[in-house]
Amino acid sequence: MPHLALTKSCWQNFEQLEKPVRNGVHKAMDKFRELTVPQLHADKGLHLEQVKNAADPRMRTIRITDFWRGVVLAPDPDTKDGQAGTFLLVDVVPHDEAYAKAKKLLFSVNSATLGLEVRDVTVIDQLTKSMEIIETPPAPDRTPPPVLPRLFAGVSDNDMQRLGVDEQVLQAVRLLTEHSQLSTFGPFFPEDQYEVLQLLSLGFSVDEVYQQVIVTRRPSEPVKPGESSLEKAIVSTPNRVRVITSSDELRQALEQPLIAWKTFLHASQRKVAYHPRFNGPVQVSGGPGTGKTVVALHRVKHLLDRYPGHRVLLTTYTNALADSLQENLRLVLDDDAERLERVHVSTVNRMAVAQIRKLKNASPSLLGDEDDRKIWRRIRKDLDLPWSDQFLVQEYRNVVLAQQIRTLDAYQTADRPGRGAGLRRQSAQREQIWGAIERYHAETEAVGTMTHTAACQAAADIAFGHPGIAVQYDHVVVDEAQDLHPAQWRFLRAVAPEGPDDLFITGDPHQRIYDSQTSLSAVGIKVTGRSRRLRINYRSTEEILTWSTGILTGAPISDMSGNGHDSLTGYRSLLHGAPPVVTGHGTEAAEIDALVKQVLTWCDAGMETADIAICSRFRMPLLDKAAKALADAGIKSVKVDSRPGPGVPGVRLATAHAMKGLEFRAVAVLGVTAKSFPFAPGITAADVDQVQHDSDILRDRCLLFVACTRAREALAVSWSGPESSFITPLLRKQ
Ligand SMILES: Nc1ncnc2c1ncn2[C@@H]1O[C@H](COP(=O)(O)OP(=O)(O)OP(=O)(O)O)[C@@H](O)[C@H]1O
Q1: Which of 111, 303, 553, 633 has its CA at a distance of 20 to 30 angstroms from the CA of residue 455?
Q2: Which residues of the chain have pLDDT under 50?
């Protein structure tokens, strides 16, 4: 019997089809599973027919209803698969459109990745011709235009071929002189070839592109003699094609809403998520929206399937993100109770508190940042210390807690990485600070309070000290890892005993928005040789991405392993849309007025209120004013902190910190002023500690970057009065 496969675009369009058409698809698909190829051809209802004058002689159409047709790619006729091979349902469209589409599509097998690819031959030819016309020499009496350097002049035809760029594409590519032309042409090229060209244009060498694209994608087994390369390509392209193996699978698949990330992983995502076994901790990094969370979810699935009976901890940074992970886990595990039961989803802090509660039979009372700072302020004043409250808070958190320093002697000799203000070893200054720390310990212990970070430290001590009592997991998967403090890492290390597939870590150092600079190796987590990077953004348009990435230009970002710097080189999106709306206003009232108009425009364009988020650095006063103005305009709003479920209507209101990990079709970032980004009271003065000052500024820069990169289709950035210095260079470019 023949097999059936569906392309990603066919799936994506299926949801929009009317019920009778969907029923027609089901009926047609049933026949593909029940009949032999000759029977399929003979079936009157199905009307499987070859398309005349098609660019690809294997193109067929099938009848779905009176007016709708399926566009189908038939197996290669001259191979044994011609009789039992895979039919690919490419799209379901009205009759005339189906024939027009079937005529111009050409499927091929990429010579390097061996993946299936498709192109509209006519469009590429037309684009090439239009470029050639521009190049035609001018009349003899006109001055010839300057010869522009070619975009890919440095890449030989042989190398292009080695990377799978074929003749038709190469002919077009050789005419390109600018990146913008590649962005216009690219989406018409076969996907793997476009990806190769994008990376080359971003400055990656031929060998680097070969490693990144070809090696990751090429199937490990070569095409066997007699096997059809088309057939092999169909099964080797899971990021764009889904092969259906049973009638139940088809029915279930078509009935469920399409969740592209569940089915069509990019090769680089699949390779790491479904890697059979890692010998130790793995780190996956990538810019915003590159699918790190998606990969983490698929890894959980893989671990549950590979290790029956094993238990997995899936952690993230905030409760809101943990809720969303739990929800998505249900989807990726198809609601399978047995596997769901073996996964615990929690924030690290919540786990740590549970750990302490288990041992001490009482919950610690947790100190918020503001209350913690008040304690330090009092101690500073009482002891008449020459340092600021902030200096003391940071010294305790980033040196003492980070390195588990428990005695004056240890503090006197400790390195203080990331701290610029010099404190000599064995000095009276360190002794003075230690006095304050002892006082802090005594005060907080007396009333039984601790910060979340201290709770993680205590929980790690319990876990290491009482292994019998501590909860342990066979595997720990960590999302949003960039902000974890060393104490949190130690706790995670304690709950995940060392071994194969012990820790799977995803994060992005460009989104570090808390004051935690951790080196994984310093907390005993060695990822050398097991570090992977994702580069394609699936969330935002290239326009939003380019603008947002500009906020970080020139800012050195240290990587998670602690061994060097991270970069967004090669980070890109395949989506395109309108550029961000970036506007300064004379007054806050004018900014809020413009916001309400913007939200109404987005709603008029068909967005639900829950698809829209409004964000500012702080809740007060802007978000409250925005909520009131929206209410006056009859638009409901709801705070993200109140954890509204996905079905609750209302524009989402969030502080920039609360936007971490979330995404919306449209995002308005308000109050991007010189006073808010950076927020001076939160920045250590340069003359107090230059290193900490730079790190505080960077943290605020990343915060604005995080807020802007939550937008999928539309981003509006606004301020009143002087704008943030982080965006001034971007305004000059506009
Ligand atoms: N292979 C895929 N196919 C389709 N959509 C995808 C794919 N991978 C990720 N996405 C979508 O891209 C968006 C971003 O994914 P995800 O949240 O996993 O990225 P992330 O790297 O964790 O982002 P961030 O670091 O900004 O929080 C989500 O809407 C997700 O569903």
Answers
A1: 303
A2: 81-82
* Helix (H) or strand (E) segment spanning residue 594: helix 588-604
Amino acid at 430: R
pLDDT tens for 687-702 read 878 888 898 999 999 9
**What pLDDT is recorded for position 364?**
80
Residue 96 host element (H or E): helix 95-104
Question: 487: which residues sit within 8 A by CB, 6+ positions away?
Answer: 401, 402, 404, 453, 454, 456, 457, 460
71, 76, 77, 82: CA torsion to nearest 10: -90
Q: Given the CA of residue 297, which atom of ligand 1 is nearest to it?
A: 18
Token readout for 577 is 């849309």
Distance, in Å, from the CA atom of 188 to the CA atom of 328, rounded to the nearest integer, reads 32
Residues contacting ligand 1 via CB (< 6 Å): 260-261, 264-266, 269, 286, 288-294, 508, 511, 538-539, 661, 663, 709
DSSP single-letter state for residue 723: B
CA dihedral (221, 223, 225, 228) positive or negative: positive
34 neighbors 46 (Cβ within 8 angstroms): no
Which residues lie below 8 Å from residue 511, measured CB to CB, with a gap of 6+?
A: 288, 480, 482, 483, 660, 702, 705, 706, 709
Region of residue 241 (left: phi > 0; alpha: psi -120 to 50; beta: else): beta
d(CA 470, CA 459): 9
Residue with tokens 């940042």: 369
- Token readout for 669 is 């970032």
Distance of CA 537 from the midpoint of ligand 1 (Å): 7
**Amino acid residing at 10:** C
Q: Is 219 annotated as a binding residue?
A: no
Tell how many helices (H) and how many strands (E) occur in the chain.
31, 26
Return d(Cα 350, Cα 199) in angstroms, integer.
41
pLDDT digits (tens, 9 = 90+) for 362-382: 778 899 988 999 999 999 999
- Using DSSP bridges, classify how beta strands 59-63 and 241-244 pair: parallel, antiparallel or unpaired: unpaired
Q: How many CB atoms lie within 10 A of CB 137?
A: 8
Q: For every residue of 387-405, which 3-state class applies, written as one string?
A: CCHHHHHHHHHHHHHCCCC
Query: Which tokens in the block code for residue 459?
Result: 């929980």
Q: What residue has token string 């001018």?
A: 138
Angle at 375 between CA 370 and CA 381, to 5 degrees: 120
Question: Is 448 annotated as ligand-binding?
Answer: no
CB atoms within 10 A of CB 682: 13
What is the structure's pLDDT at 434?
96
Indicate if ipTM > 0.90: yes
C-alpha of residue 635 to centroid of ligand 1, in Å: 29
Tell me if 314 sits within 8 A of 345, measured CB to CB.
yes
- Angle (CA) 32 36 39, round 5°: 95
- Output the pLDDT for position 645: 80
What pLDDT is attached to residue 222?
75
Amino acid 152 reads: F
Q: In testing the pocket of ligand 1, which one of 7, 8, 195, 261 has its CB within 8 Å of the most ligand atoms?
A: 261
Rg (alpha carbons) of the chain, rounded to whole number: 29
Q: CA-CA distance, 267 to 8, in Å (whole number)?
A: 14
What pLDDT is recorded for position 575?
85
Ligand 1 atom 2: the closest Cα is on which residue?
Answer: 261
SS (H, E, C) 410-462: HHHHCCCCCCCCCCCCCCHHHHHHHHHHHHHHHHHHHHCEECHHHHHHHHHHH
Helix residue spans in 307-368 (DSSP H): 319-332, 337-341, 348-360
Supply the pLDDT for residue 276.
Answer: 93
Strands 572-573 and 49-50 come out as unpaired
What is the residue with the minimal CA distance to atom 26 of ligand 1?
288
